[in-house]
Amino acid sequence: MKKIFEPLITAWTSLTTHKLRSFLTILGVVIGIAAVIILMSVGKGATASILSNFSSLGANMITISGGSTTSGGVRSAAGSTQTLTLEDANAIAANVTDINGVAPTSNSGMQVIAGSQNTFVQVTGITPSYLDVYSITIAEGDSIAQYDLDRKTKVALIGPTVSDTLFSGNDPVGQKIRMNNTIYTIVGLLTSQGQSFSSSDNRILIPLTTLQSLNSRSLTTSGDHIVNSIVVQAASKDVIDSVKQQITFLLEDRHKIAAGATDDFTLTSTDQITASITSSMSTLTYLLGAIAGISLLVGGIGVMNIMLVSVMERRREIGIRKALGAKERDIWGQFLIDSALLTLAGGVIGIGIGTAGAYLVSHLGLGITTLVTSDIVILAVAVSVGIGLFFGFYPAWQGSKMDPIQALRSE
């Protein structure tokens, strides 16, 4: 037990003997560790925020987009290849099993006018199944029905943000708005979904066929109705691969795509999107940590400098210990413990300051979300001790190799 605690007591005595010097050395490590924690927590928080927004798309979603994916993984630009149609969506709904709903959509940005107020919003053409697939509810009024789709009626569902802009908080149901020189009647107010990727708060929803009638290029040469994308909700996560395969076979047959040829559509599941985001954001998080780690490198150089000074100051002590039978590994281990204790202290303090700093950043009203996780803390402690061992190695080795006679001759 004595062999365990004696080097620690000696190291502590060495640190407290030169309080100011130890404090300044520790300060460099503290700043580095705190910077690493704050920047990595920003990366982690951004990842969690983005994934939370994508989760609002709904569970088990498969998005079908027009355009093919090349061998390099780059899909042709959205909108540059109009290959999906409303008839494709109807075929999927009728023939693909293990799905809960199909929601084809088209989008167009429009200037919307209501009385003296106006704003520019995204107008989305939808079918009745859209609200169920995206888990959107009506706060007031009615929804868009199949009747509206069949007759291309001029009705609209309005998001709460658009409603506040155009009607200043007054009841929008029954009010008239003008879009593209056409009058629409608002039949329903959507429930707020907050700030998320698929939020309809700042959108206006109209029947898909009504939106398509505004565009002279909304029909294929065969008379089918073009849509921007089709979203399919699988019955469960376990059947996503099966559903994707069914959709692929069906669309290849409908689009007359030969075996081995490149598909003119792309299927992407929510799991694929979240996995891609997680991978990309993890890389960004560790990049931020590496940038902050530069300050740790500077702190480590400071540790090495102080340990070299300490070796020179304790030459006589080293000589006496060697004369009394201490081995090189004893001297070497003592100085490594000194440097590790120095950086460990800085690491512990840095974790506290970094955690407090991350909390402060997320509450400054800057829209930055931070998340301090256990892996960040463990990494910070491991790095701080590792720096102590790495930068303390040379001074420790130099001290262990010191000749005892020469050491005893020193002051």
Characterization of the model:
- The protein has helices at 2-17, 19-55, 86-95, 130-133, 146-151, 160-167, 208-213, 240-254, 270-313, 315-323, 328-362, 374-400, 404-409, and strands at 61-66, 99-114, 117-126, 138-141, 155-158, 176-179, 182-190, 203-207, 229-234, 265-269.
- A six-stranded mixed β-barrel has the order 2-3-8-5-7-6.
- It folds into two domains: 2-53 and 276-409, no CATH class; 103-234, no CATH class.
- 54% of the residues lie in helices and 17% in strands.
- Strand 2 and strand 3 form a beta hairpin.
- With 411 residues, the protein is of the alpha+beta class.
- It is built from 13 helices and ten strands.
Strand content: 15-25%
Count of discrete structural domains: 2
Largest sheet: 6 strands, mixed, barrel
- Poorly predicted runs are 70-80
Structural class: alpha+beta
Q: What is the distance, rounded to the nearest whole angstrom, between the alpha carbons of the first and last residues?
A: 33 Å
What global shape is seen?
A: elongated
Mean pLDDT, to the nearest integer, reads 80
Order of helices and strands: HHEHEEHEHEHEEEHEHEHHHHH
Total strands: the figure is 10
Strand order in space, largest sheet: 2-3-8-5-7-6
Rg measurement, Å: 33 Å
Helix count? 13
- Percentage of helical residues? 40-55%
Q: Secondary-structure map with pairings?
A:
Layout: H1 2-17, H2 19-55, E1 61-66, H3 86-95, E2 99-114, E3 117-126, H4 130-133, E4 138-141, H5 146-151, E5 155-158, H6 160-167, E6 176-179, E7 182-190, E8 203-207, H7 208-213, E9 229-234, H8 240-254, E10 265-269, H9 270-313, H10 315-323, H11 328-362, H12 374-400, H13 404-409
Parallel strand pairs: 3-8, 5-7
Antiparallel strand pairs: 1-9, 1-10, 2-3, 2-6, 2-9, 4-7, 5-8, 6-7
Helix pairs in contact: 1-11, 2-9, 2-11, 2-12, 3-8, 9-11, 9-12, 11-12
